[in-house]
Each structure stands twice: as structure tokens, then as C-alpha cells.
TrEMBL record:
This is Acyl-CoA dehydrogenase family protein. Coiled coil: none annotated. Its cofactor is FAD. Residues 124-221 form the Acyl-CoA oxidase/dehydrogenase middle domain. PROSITE patterns: ACYL_COA_DH_1.
Amino acid sequence: MDFSITAEQAALRRSVIRFARTELNDAAAESDRLARLDRESWKKCAGLGITGWPVPTAYGGSGFDPVTIAVGLEALGYGCRDNGLVFALNNHLWACAVYLVEHGTEDQKQRFLPGLADGSLIGAHALTEPGSGSDVLGMRTAAVREGDEYVLHGTKTFISNAPVADVFLTFARTGGPDAPAAAALTAFVVSRDLPGVSVSRSWDKAGLRSTEMGQVEFEGCRVPASCLLGAEGNGFNLFTSSIDWERSLLFASQIGVMDRVLDDCVAHARDRVQFGRPIGVNQAVRHRIADMKVRLELARLALYKAAWRKREGQLAPLDSAIAKLAISESHLSSMLDAVQLHGARGYLAEFGVERELRDALGGTIYGGTSEIQRDIVASLLGVPS
Ligand SMILES: Cc1cc2nc3c(=O)[nH]c(=O)nc-3n(C[C@H](O)[C@H](O)[C@H](O)COP(=O)(O)OP(=O)(O)OC[C@H]3O[C@@H](n4cnc5c(N)ncnc54)[C@H](O)[C@@H]3O)c2cc1C
């Protein structure tokens, strides 16, 4: 088994870290305070090609394979201290663009992918509703076919990127009341400029504040039938096959964050002197750092196993659920450790460590909560539900 990365991947890693450190970090604290996506930083990332890494070159992207993208996104998380910017990019890639790459018609790909790849269009994933979070099949948004159009009515909430998005990848109920649950949903790609689409509110949140989050209303929105993604009634299958990306690659950047914060903690353990000696000589501090490293390496293995499976063209529901669970929970535990290890400097806004903790909080919720991932793992092992 070969755990090394290629020379090209190593070069990508170096260049992304250098780029992120020099170009993206100055605005990080201010973007968090204002809860605003820094559009200049977005454009710089687009200029480097990040917004199109998984998009085939034929549609203006880089056509990178999943393992190479994992290396690049890990590097972005390592170099960039604006975790909200990185999360906004990841939502764009894994919750919108990749659906079009996998399931779009040639016409849809031609229409949307070049703009998503060059970052001039921002993508969002509008799934969750006020009454339907973990229970995806409980969604109420309905789409009724009228001639060559579908008329959408419904509310999607907690949607990352919604206030700034140009394209919504969304799901609606098309089956009648007697349709079997899993055949009741259909996926659509909806342009924000269609009449009947509006972002009715923005949400203020604890972390990832520079990813703007909003509520999307579809009020008699007439979506051309050409914007149906996959077949009518196949939305849930499409969702369950593509959610692998969100549950694995979207979390690659968190590995980079854990690595960066670990470096900061090691430096602090060396530099901070109490009782006449560095705090790192205390076993309680040393072991905390060792535990952070163990969590990081195990989470990294889970990520690359899932990314490798995706590179081999396989579905990876078990590996991606494990990766999502392992990375998000490890990330949160390690950011709590980082706060404790920095004492008051961990708690005060000025030093940036508390922001890392706030940014880690959402990872065990979005993309399916930890409880839902554990349920998926148990079901895939054959445990009755
Ligand atoms: C930062 C962030 C970004 C997000 N971005 C998006 C986005 O871009 N697009 C989008 O569509 N949504 C997004 N969401 C919404 C997210 O997908 C939902 O919050 C998530 O699916 C959980 O739904 P809920 O909040 O309604 O919680 P609920 O489903 O109400 O769950 C509440 C609690 O009950 C538990 N629970 C529920 N059902 C079960 C069960 N069967 N077994 C065990 N426990 C259960 C949950 O695990 C949780 O602890 C985002 C959320 C966050 C926090």
C-alpha cells in the first residue's frame, strides 16, 4: 500500500498553501465579524482554478481526480484561516457543481459548468426545509408539471451561499400522495434570476460566518423542464449517490485546519512559559497534543480512503459516512483542545483560536448529523432499524 502523494500533488499542495497564506488571510477576521463572503478572495480562488477543480476540462475546469482534489483542499484548509470562505467554496463544488458533472445533460453542462468552474456563478444546495432536516423524504416543496415547465412552491432553509448564489441545486416532490417515498422526489437546477425565486432572509450563525446562509422561497417559480436533473422521480437516488462527495471531499479542508491548529498548539506548548518552564513539559499538555495528532491522522486516513474509492468510480456510502463522522467529530474535539491549551488566548477573539472552535461546531450537523451518519453505518452493516 502506497501512502505517498505524487510529485504533482506535492507541488499543488505547496502552491495552494503559499497562495492561501499570501492572498486569503488578511480579510479572515473581518469577514467573520461582518458575516460576509469576501468576494475578492472568492475571485482569487477562482483565478487559481479552485472553483472548477472537479469540473472536466471540456467545460472549463481542471478535471482533477478526487485524490488530487483532496490534497488541494487539505492544503487550502491548512493555508487559509478564513474557514467560511473555504466552506463556501466546498458547498459550491460538492453540493452543486458535482451534481451537474455527474447527472447533467450535455445542454445543462454547457450552460452551467463553465460559469461555475470559473467562479463567475456561485452554486448552492437547497435541500433542507423548516419541517424537513434529517428527514429528507419529509420535504413539502412541490413541483407540478405544466407543459414544458415545472411550477415550484416551497421554502428551503439554512442554505449555505444562498444570499450570494446564482444557481440552486434543489429537490421537490413530484410524486402524488400515493408515490412510494423514494420515488417522490425530483432534482432541479434553478437559476436565481427566474421569476418566483427569492432569498427571503439571511441567518446569523455561530461559526463559518463568512459563508452567507439564507432561506430560499419558490413561489410559483416556473422552471423549464430542461432544468430537471436526472429523471423525474429519481431525485432521491440522485441525492444518495452524490451525497458521497459532500460527506467526504467537503471535509478535506477540515483535515488541513486540524493540521494547522496542531502546529499552532505545538508552537504554543514550546513558547508559553509558566512556572519557569514551557507548558509543553507537562504531561497533561503533551498528551493533549498527542491525542490531536492521533485524531488528525485517523481522520486523514478515512478521507483518503473515501477519495480513493471515488477516484476508482465507486459509490462510497459507508466510507463517506465514516469519513464525515470521523473528520467532523475529530475536528470539533481538537478545536476544544486547542482552546484549552491556549488558556485565555484560546478564548479571546483577538487570537483567532475561538473562531476555529466556532467554525468546527457546524460540521457535526451539516451534510447529515453525526447521529444520522451512525444510523447509516449501522444500516449498512445490516443492523435492523
Ligand atoms: C453550517 C450549516 C450549513 C448548512 N448548509 C446547508 C445547505 O447548504 N443546504 C441545505 O439544504 N441544508 C444545509 N444545512 C442544514 C443541515 O443539512 C441540517 O441542519 C441537518 O440536515 C439537520 O437537520 P435539522 O437542523 O433540521 O435537525 P433535525 O433533523 O431536526 O435534528 C435535530 C436533532 O435530532 C437528531 N435526530 C433527528 N432524527 C434522528 C434520527 N432518526 N435518529 C437519531 N437522531 C435523530 C439529529 O441528529 C439532531 O441531533 C446546514 C446546516 C448548518 C449547521
